[in-house]
Amino acid sequence: MTPPAFADAVTTRQKARAAGLDPNHWYPVEYERGLPACSIRATSFWGAAVALWRDVDGRVHALEDRCAHRSVEGCRLACAYHGWTYDETGRLVDVPHDRFGHTAPAVRLRDYPVRVRYGLIWMFPGDPALAERVPLPAVTSLDGSEPWAYVPIDFTWRAHHSMVMDNLCDLTHAHLHRRFASFQPGRLLDWDATDGRVLLRYEAKVGPRVRYDVAPSPMTICFEYPHHWAAFEWSGIRGRIRYWTFLLPMDVRTTRVFFVMTYDRLRLPALPLSVPHRALRWVLAAVQPFVRSLLDQDGVALEAEQRGYETHWEAPLVELNPAVALLHRLTIRKWEAHLARSLGVPA
Ligand SMILES: [Fe+2]
């Protein structure tokens, strides 16, 4: 028996683990540098295959990917099987070698609104009429005249997006990271759940000095539907850190996770000077393999949790952190509202 679909789910956890994410938001799908001119990358949103394609003028397009044999012909998206090519709106523009007198089929691929910002390509998978009205998520620390240091990092994990969100918001899983201790079990001080977000305030020892005698830091972690952000300072090191995590729900058990971790100038108590943004970028790039190893541990745990859930979805759950139920309720509420809207039912 496989876990129940959303309509058949009984418990809060089963519903959260079957819910999608509301398509009427902007989702990152690829890095800008990952899509050179005249190239194609495949992605998907909740099971709908999408071909990302950059034209000869450098503009990015996202088209429904109906063709398993797509390629680039003359810098256009093409079906490698028939050689048909499409324009940027998904309209079939060229049907070559029509020597048997066939008329061109009326094929029109769906095209999705696309934006480029923060080095990421963003797609709006929902109602295109809403795309103009829904703002892109603001990474405020990169928006100012002096952007904070930022080195991108991403993973594709075989786990439902709600599991990833649980992990991001739950500071009780320090045991998992004992090899690369980056935080110690956090204490949830209080929380605030509204219609669109769950804001959690923790206190935890966090950062590279957790093994030293340093005071714990306050840490705010937020599920700002459908994304995640956290704001804190490393314990024993002065300097603001804000990171955003953007989840792309590729399908019911695959999530691409884009981390946008940004660092303001850091200052160690022993040093008279602060580390400026430019130097920090070098440091961040240098410690990238370490950060990947650390987050790989989350990936291994999440993929194990997904497999465990698929086997034991009927078993009762032991959950230590009361915040997790709040996260699940927000995910469920938003998905129910989306389903009701798509059926034309007033919320
Ligand atoms: Fe973790």
Question: How would you concisely characterize the structure shown here?
Answer:
The chain is of the alpha+beta class. It has helices spanning 12-18, 140-143, 161-169, 277-286, 288-312, 323-342, and strands at residues 27-31, 40-45, 48-54, 60-64, 70-73, 76-79, 85-86, 92-94, 111-112, 114-117, 120-123, 149-150, 153-157, 187-193, 197-204, 217-224, 227-233, 240-251, 254-263.
- Rg is 22 Å
CATH class of the largest domain: Alpha Beta
Looking at the structure, the CATH topology of the largest domain is Naphthalene 1,2-dioxygenase Alpha Subunit, Chain A, domain 1
Q: Which segments are poorly predicted (pLDDT under 50) over 5 or more consecutive residues?
A: none
The separation of the N and C termini measures 33 Å
Tell me the number of strands: 19
Q: How many alpha or pi helices?
A: 6
Secondary-structure arrangement, i.e. CATH architecture of the largest domain: Alpha-Beta Complex
What count of structural domains?
A: 2
**Overall pLDDT:** 90
N-to-C SSE series? HEEEEEEEEEEEHEEHEEEEEEHHH
Helix content: 10-25%
What's the CATH H-level homologous superfamily of the largest domain? Naphthalene 1,2-dioxygenase Alpha Subunit, Chain A, domain 1
Structural class: alpha+beta
Q: Tell me what portion of residues adopts beta-strand conformation.
A: 25-35%
Largest sheet: 8 strands, antiparallel
Bound ligand species: fe (ii) ion
Dominant shape: globular
